[in-house]
């Protein structure tokens, strides 16, 4: 990475950093982009 740092995600609000919430956010974004979800997802 060109910056060699600051690659860690600091969610706001902190609850968005929970694993289940991260998966939910990723799924919502992938749906909005018309991309496939994970293999075991609906």
TrEMBL record:
Coiled coil: none
Keywords linked to the UniProt accession: Bacteriocin immunity
InterPro entries the UniProt entry points to: Colicin_E_sf, Colicin_pyocin
Molecular function (Gene Ontology), one example: toxic substance binding
Cited SUPFAM superfamilies: Colicin E immunity proteins (SSF47345)
The keyword 4Fe-4S is assigned to this record: no
Keyword Transferase: no
Gene Ontology BP term (one): bacteriocin immunity
Chain segments annotated as transmembrane: none
Any matching Pfam family: Colicin_Pyocin
Protein family according to the UniProt entry: Belongs to the colicins ColE2/ColE8/ColE9 and pyocins S1/S2 family.
Name recorded for this polypeptide: Bacteriocin immunity protein
């Amino acid at each position: 990475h060109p910056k060699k740092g600051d690659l860690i995600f600091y969610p706001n609000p902190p609850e968005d950093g929970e694993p289940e919430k991260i998966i939910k956010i990723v799924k919502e974004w992938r749906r909005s982009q018309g991309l496939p979800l994970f293999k075991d997802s609906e």
